[in-house]
Write a structure and sequence with these properties.
The chain is 14% helix and 38% strand. The protein is mostly beta strands. It has one domain: Roll (SH3 type barrels). β1 and β2 form a beta hairpin. The longest helix has 10 residues. The chain starts with a helix and ends in an 11-residue tail after the last strand. This is Ferrous iron transport protein A.
Length: 72
């Protein structure tokens, strides 16, 4: 799970992230972090829709190559 400090850094910098949910790249959520709680994160996508996701998913920088998700 990603730490609160890392989430805060990503939120303040406005960097795009990739949330890898499974092996299919088409199921990735790409956007910026808006908020988080102890078990969920809120990601704003490019179309301005907001998605609430489990915090245990693999979170990666969008600018870096996609990596396989870690087991939940």
């Amino acid at each position: 799970m990603i730490s609160d400090e890392e989430l805060n850094h990503l939120r303040e910098s406005g960097e795009r992230i990739r949330v890898v949910r499974d092996d299919l790249e088409s199921n990735d959520v790409i956007g910026i972090i808006v908020a988080w709680s102890s078990d969920q994160i809120l990601v704003r996508r490019r179309n301005r829709r907001v998605v609430k996701l489990d915090r245990n998913y693999s979170i990666q920088l969008y600018s870096e190559p996609r990596q396989k998700p870690t087991e939940l």
